[in-house]
Each structure stands twice: as C-alpha cells, then as structure tokens.
Amino acid sequence: MKGLGFIFLIVFIAAVSLAATVHAAEFTGLWVGSVSVDKVSESQILVNSTNPTEVATPFKFRMLLHVDTSGNTRIIKDVIHMWKPGSPGHYALITDDTLIPSNFVCDNLADTEFCHRISTAAYDFDGLQVNMSGAFSLGGLLTGRLVLTPENPTNPFMHRFNPEHDNLNEDSKPLKNFAVFDAEGNEAKRVCSLAEPKRSCSVDADCPAGEICAVNTPILEVYRVTRDMTLTFSATDPNGSNASPAWGSSLMAGLYQETLIGLHKHTIYVSGTFRLQKVTDIGELNQ
Prior knowledge:
- By secondary structure, this protein is mainly beta.
- Among the domains are: 21-77 and 120-155 and 221-280, Beta Barrel (Lipocalin), CATH 2.40.128; 176-217, no CATH class.
- Helices cover 3% and strands 36% of the residues.
- The chain contains two helices and 16 strands.
- The strands form four sheets. Strands 9-5-4-3-16-15-14-11-10 form a nine-stranded antiparallel beta sheet, with no helix packed on it. Strands 7-6-8 form a three-stranded antiparallel beta sheet, with no helix packed on it.
- A hairpin with a 5-residue loop joins strand 6 (78-84) and strand 7 (90-94).
- The longest helix has 4 residues, at 18-21.
- Mean pLDDT is 83; it is low at 1-22.
C-alpha cells in the first residue's frame, strides 16, 4: 500500500517444523561418524542369548555412509576426495582406485600432491560398496548386510600360510565334502545324510530309511561371516538441551544394532549408539 510517501509491505510468515521441510536431497553426501557398542549378547550362554548385556568398556569404530542424489544410502569402507579436471572441473569421491591414474588428481592446484583419504578398519566386504534399505532421515531406519566370504583375505578365520585354515586339501585343491560322484561321473550335488561311504541321491527315497537327501556342502576351514546392521535415526538430538545447531541437517544420531552370524557357533547380538557428521555434499561416487 502507498500513502503520504510511505510504502507499506504486508508479509505473510509461516512457521514450519524443520523435520517437515528437510528433503531427502539435503542429506546427500558423505557421512563419517562413529559407532559405540555398549551391549553384547553372552553367546556362550544359551538362555536369553539374544538380549545384549552391558559391557565394562564400550567399543568404538568408524562408519562411512554415502547418500546419493536419489536418497539411496551405501556403506563404504574407504574413499578419497579428489579433483577431476575439466571445463569446469569438480571435486569427486573415489572408492575405485583403478580410476585414479587417468581421471583424477589430488586438487585443482598444481602444487598439491596429497589427497584426503578416509577409511575404516572396522569392517570389510567384497566389492566397493553395500546398498542399504530404508530411509536416511530423522526418525528413519536403515538396514544393511555385510558378508565376509571365506575367500576374503581379511576373514578372521583365514590364515594363508597355515594349512589348517586355507580351505585347501593336502594337494592344494579346494576342500570338498568327500569325493562323491553320481552315475554319470559328475560330482554329486546331493548326498545321503548318514550313509558311509557317502553316496549320491536326488530325493529322500534314494537313501536308506531314516536318512534324507541333503546338499553336498563343502567342509570349510574358513567360515562365512555375516553382519546385519540396523541404524535407527533419532528424531531429536540425544544430547537434549545441549543439541547441536547442525542437528537434522549435517549431524545425525541414533540407535545401532547388529547381528553377527558365523563368528561364533551361536549368533551374536550387539547394540549401542551412532553419531554421523556430513563432510561433503558430493552426491555421486567415482564421477
């Protein structure tokens, strides 16, 4: 409105909660943080072994997550912050070392010889990344499975120079569950469960009474280890009155839970807390 030389502006202001306005794209980028495990199940005790109990001293380890521009979250184990020359050039997050020699440099400054690398020794898996299911958001939940195969050099049961833990027989050939062959001379895929010597089968009826036709699985000296991780994001900063101004945008925290299979004859359950800090907004890997 105008009058007597003055201009009056009517401005409408609406208050909307932060949680409602934060879009998934705002979480895009590399997140680095720590997990503090303060409860572990007593796997040697069968009674209530699924309920983790408090430990004397929490165990902490680093965790790396990347959220892309579509909101997909991946677990990664190491990443290098580099520069990709071009017109214009741009910074990139590299998890595939084979791309480095011909595509990226450490920085856009010619005299820079050192790159920033972030990694964790707390977990490993085949490949460069593991996809997670769920939502990276306030109050959201993410789940992911890490598998450490018997062939992985970081498998805790693997000892390359110990013949008792290399998954090879005395002839340095892959260890198998007996040399059982079918009528055509091929290695049997299924064998009778109790028969000695072992014999091939297709259905239970091929076996003596009381036996089943079971998969002929390898006898392994090195076991497969599976880690099922669950991250439950808190809707509010667990620090309460000491909440960080970055909470909900570049700082996230919540409950951490994990189930480990294969490390012990009984499943191990652990729980604790996690806290993640966003260190860059780069939304894609290796580009």
